[in-house]
Write a structure and sequence with these properties.
There is one protein chain. The chain is about 30% helix and about 20% strand. It is an alpha/beta fold. The chain has two domains: about 260 residues, Rossmann fold (3-Layer(aba) Sandwich); about 90 residues. A nine-stranded mixed sheet has the order 1-2-9-8-3-4-6-5-7, with helices on both faces. A four-stranded antiparallel sheet has the order 10-11-12-13, covered by helices on one side. Helix 6 links the parallel strand 8 and strand 9.
Length: about 375
């Protein structure tokens, strides 16, 4: 048995308390129907796009484009697709907590139909996010504009829901500017793309981890339960595990379940997962790292390390830190060490203080208390 447990069948009876960190193999509608009411904090849904492709598409040099032509993306009519959409949205709303949120992603083929159904089911739309693809697939035939974006709809369960939004974390992730509703992120490629034994991509619509990282960081907290009813190769589960969130994945195809289970088992959580989201400004003392050096709480040349001693960085006189030839702020170098889009350097980096390893935040609090005295 893997660290995730075995893949379960959707027909299992629901438990009084929802079991997390597991993949349910089966159709999403009956699988969600087996879950308790109001048991998840966030839902990320990447439903079939109903692409309605007609014939094969070839690249200019003659190569066949690996498009989405799987049976799970085919519907007899718009009416059939609309009925499917309303059915899964209804079950999703039942299992979502009153103050939870739903994210749905789609292309021009389906997102407008999904958006109407979202409103018809009683959800309250908060934003539509445009994911601008930094490296989109070109329009090989030259008959249309290059399709370079997809749309995400973010909505609360109802107009009066007290949904969670990590405004400070989003601002920090965007170089201290308010996060906008257009996100420029690359498509999934290279080493991140999950491949089959023959080298072919395991899933045609695998989403990049950077996209899910931003979504989960925006509106969940450590320990929250995230449901993905169209799990695919498990991007949502992998990012949830990395950020210290609990997850439930529902996936109809057995081959995708196997890939996702193996992928998530190999994902390592961030050391700072419990405190990755930044607190509100009112609760954080406004202390620059340089102030600790100026007052002698930390000496130039001091060695910083993470809690487990895996990475080390040396403090420089100008309050920057250096690690393996890279220089930057405590936040930048902490992010580089973990290969993460962001890092709270105050809690990630530790220093010896009186023979004890303590986070830099302890010294910041000490300095702030001195200002209040």
């Amino acid at each position: 048995m893997s660290v995730l447990g075995r893949v379960e069948k959707a027909k299992c009876a629901p438990a009084p308390e929802v079991a997390t960190d597991r993949i349910i193999q089966g159709d999403c509608i009956p699988a969600m129907a087996a879950l308790p009411d109001k048991c998840v904090d966030m839902i990320f849904a990447d439903p079939p796009y109903n692409l309605q492709l007609g014939g094969e598409l070839f690249r200019p040099e003659g190569g066949l484009v690996d498009a989405v032509d799987d049976d799970w993306d085919k519907f007899d009519s718009f009416a059939t697709y609309d009925g499917f959409t309303r059915a899964w949205l209804k079950e999703a709303r039942r299992v979502l907590k009153d103050d939870g949120t739903l994210w749905v992603i789609g292309s021009y083929h389906n997102i407008f139909r999904v958006g109407a159904a979202v409103q018809d089911e009683g959800y309250w739309i908060l934003n539509d996010i445009v994911w601008r693809k930094a490296n989109p697939m070109p329009n090989f035939r030259g008959t249309r504009f290059t399709n370079a974006h997809e749309t995400l709809i973010w909505c609360a369960k109802g107009e009066d829901s007290r949904y969670h939004f990590n405004y400070r974390a989003m601002k920090a992730l965007n170089d201290e500017l308010q996060m906008r509703s257009d996100w420029l992120l690359p498509i999934c490629s290279g080493g991140e793309r999950v491949k089959e034994a023959g080298g072919h991509k395991a899933h045609p619509t695998q989403k990049p981890e950077s996209l899910l990282y931003r979504v989960l960081l925006a509106c969940t907290q450590p320990g929250d339960v995230v449901l993905d009813p169209f799990f695919g190769t498990g991007t949502t589960g992998a990012v949830a595990r990395r950020l210290g969130r609990k997850w439930i994945g529902i996936e109809k195809e057995a081959k995708y379940c196997a890939v996702a289970e193996e992928r998530i088992a190999s994902t390592l959580p961030l050391d700072e997962s419990a405190i990755l989201t930044m607190q509100d400004k009112k609760s954080v003392p406004r202390v620059p790292f340089g102030a600790l050096i100026e007052t002698g709480l930390i000496a130039p040349g001091a060695m910083l390390t993470d809690a487990k001693g895996r990475w080390k960085a040396r403090v420089r006189a100008d309050a920057s830190v250096e690690m393996a030839g890279k220089q930057g702020s405590i936040h930048q170098i902490g992010a580089a060490a973990q290969e993460s889009p962001s890092c709270n350097g105050w809690t990630f980096w530790h220093v010896r203080d009186g023979g004890k390893l303590v986070p830099l935040d302890d010294l910041r609090q000490r300095y702030a208390q001195g200002l209040k005295a």
